[in-house]
Design a protein that fits this description.
With 272 residues, the chain is α/β, with parallel strands linked by helices. It has two domains: 157 residues, no CATH class; 100 residues, Hect, E3 ligase catalytic domain (Hect, E3 ligase catalytic fold, 2-Layer Sandwich). Helices cover 50% and strands 7% of the residues. It contains 15 helices and four strands. The chain has a four-stranded mixed beta sheet. The protein is elongated. It starts with a helix and ends in an 8-residue tail after the last helix.
Amino acid sequence: MQLGRVLAKMLVDGRSSNKLRSMHPVFLRCLVATNSHEDADLGALKSVSLSFDDYHAWTGRSDFFVRLLSARTAEEVAAAIGQWEDFGDLKPGGDDIAVTVANKREYVELKINHELVGRRVQQLQAVCKGFWSSLPSSGELASVLRVLTPMDWFILLGGEELIEVTQLLQLLDFEDWGDSPTPAHLRSVLQSASQTQLRKFIKFVTGADSLPLPPIRGHVRIKVEKVGGGLQRLPEAHTCFYQLDLPDYCSLSELRTKLLEQAVEATSFHLA
């Protein structure tokens, strides 16, 4: 249930993570199917309709189902399965129903649902319950969440695929920099940065690798604080406060070197 609660907390705080873009849509469909912690039961989860493409995308394996669906005779069905097979626990009375050319597609559909949901139903149920129990059960937010599609959830939790540098620049607040060129230099560095560098910069400053979601973005500012310590000092980030401590470097190249090559690219930089 803890994973579900973490996802709910991210949603409420307007946070997202690009790493969650690897979530398979099957999981997101389970969230849509339950849409409340009372509905996160076996019946709701098993009602999720899955396809051959879902199985292939999740597992990367599909040869078995391709061979079976291509079978045109009883012998080819048997060869595809490897032995004479029945439906087993896939449906009531399945032990007495053999897989044939006529019902092979039904078998494949039931088998895919079992592999992707049935075998994981307890874990999926726990995540869904943890997620929905951590969100309001009524009110405007609850009503909006219940009409979201799997793709909506994908964007909300995984963030936008590309970072718009103009949106990032709009979040920056510079205070007490006077006529220093450093604010302009920082904007220039970010404008010329790659997507990977931008994502690392955002993680360096905020602790998350994606920009806040649009409803929250308007209330979030990244404060760029001018600090002393000489030109040898590296930038420091305070992720709890969305604050970047930045020395007043004398040149654009100096700022680029310190920020991107030493701070953002470092694997052991300090997050305060």
